[in-house]
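Hey, quick one: can you model this chain's 3D structure?
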Amino acid sequence: MNSDPTGNRPVASASFRFCQWRMLLATMFCYLFFYTGRQTFGFAIPGIEEELGISKSTLGWASAAMLWSYAIGQSINGNLGDKFGGRRLMSLGAILSCLLNWITSFGQSLPGLTVPWALNGYAQSMGWAPGSKVLSSWWPAAERGKVYGAYVFAAGMASVLAFATSTLILEFELGWRWIFRLPVLLLLVGGATYYLVVRDSPEDLGFSPLPDGQQPKPKTTRDSDAIANLQASGETADESSAERYLAALSNPRFLVACLAIGFQSMARYGLLIWVPVHFLGDDWKNSDTKWMSLALPIGMALGAITSGWLSDRLFHSNRSRVISLFLFLATASSLAMYVLPRDHMLAIPLLLLTGFFAYGPQSAFWALCPDLLGRQRAGTGTGVMNTFAYVFAGLGEPLIGWLIESRGDTAIVFGVVATACFSGAVVSLLIRR
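Sure thing. Here's the predicted structure for all 433 residues.
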C-alpha cells in the first residue's frame, strides 16, 4: 500500500501493527503498577487502627477522600488527555503518586494521613483516562473490546501485585508504613518507561490517523445503535473542552452507563478495601487466612479480559449484555460469600468468582466511551464515566466501615457488594433501549 497524499505511512502496514501492539503493551505495563499506589490501603487499616487509634469507620472516610479526589481528577484529566495527549499525563501521575504515597507513610494523625492520601487520588487520576485516550487513538472500534479487555486485565493484575506486595510486607513484619513505601517504587519505573516508549497518536510516528469510518459492521438493529451515535457525534479534532463535555453529558445512553458503573465501582472498591480486612481477621499479625484475599484480584484480572473478548465476539459489540450478565452473576457469588465462613474450603474459589464477575464488566464499560461518544471524545468520556464510578465508590467506603463496626461482622461487605451489583445489573439493561 502506498502512502496517503499527506506523505504519512499507511495504517494497514506491518510496521503500524507493530506500533499498535507496542502502545498497548506499554500502556498495560505502566498501569500494571498504578494500583500499588492506591489499592493497598485496606492492608494498612488494622495497623493504623492499632498504632494511631483511628476507627474503621473514620478510616473509611479517609479512603473516601482519596476516591472522591480521584473522581474530581478524572473529570479534569480525561479532557486534558483529549486536549494534550495521554503520554505526559500518565507518566506525571505515576511519579506524583509515588511521592504522595511516601508522604502518607509518615502520617501521625488523621489529617496527616488523609490530606496526602486525597492528593494521591488526584495524581492517580492522571493514569486511566489519558491511557485510554492513547489506546483509542491507535486502535479501531472493531478491536476495542479486545484492547480494553487487555488494558483492564493489566489493571486487574495490578490489583494482584498490590495485594501480593502488601501481604508480603505484613508477612515480613515490616509494619503498615512500608505498605505505602515499597510497592510504589514499581510505579516510578512504570511511569518513566511509559514516557520513553509511548507516542500519543499514529501521526506522531509518521502514520496516517485511523479513518473515522473504521467501525464494526452492525449485526442487528441494536448493534447499530452505537455506530449511529458515533456517526451522529460529529467527531472533530478541534472541538472545545466545553463541547466535549456537553456531548458526553447530553447523551442519554452514556449517562445510564455512568450510573451503572457507579454501582459496579461501589461493589469493586468495597471488595478491594474491605476483603483484606475480612481475611486478616482480629489477629491480623498472625492471620492464617491473609493470603486467601489474593484470589479476589486474580479473579478480577481474568474477568476483565474475558468480558472484553465476549463483548466483541459473542455479543457483537453489544457491551450492555455482558455488563448485566456479569453483574447478576456477581450478585449471586457475593451472597454466597456472605453466608460462607471465612476459613471454609470454598471461600477461595467463590472469592475468585466474585472478583471475576464484579470486575469483569469494566472493559465493556470503557469500550462504551468511544463507542457512544466517538474516538475524539474518548478521554473526556472515560473521565466523566470514571467520575461517576468513584463518587459512588467513595460513598460505599464509610458505609461499609460503619456497618462492620456496628455489627461486628466483616462479612457484611459481601451483602453491600451484592446489593450494589444487583442495582448495576438492572440499570445496565437500560443502556441500549
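One thing worth noting: The radius of gyration is 21 Å.
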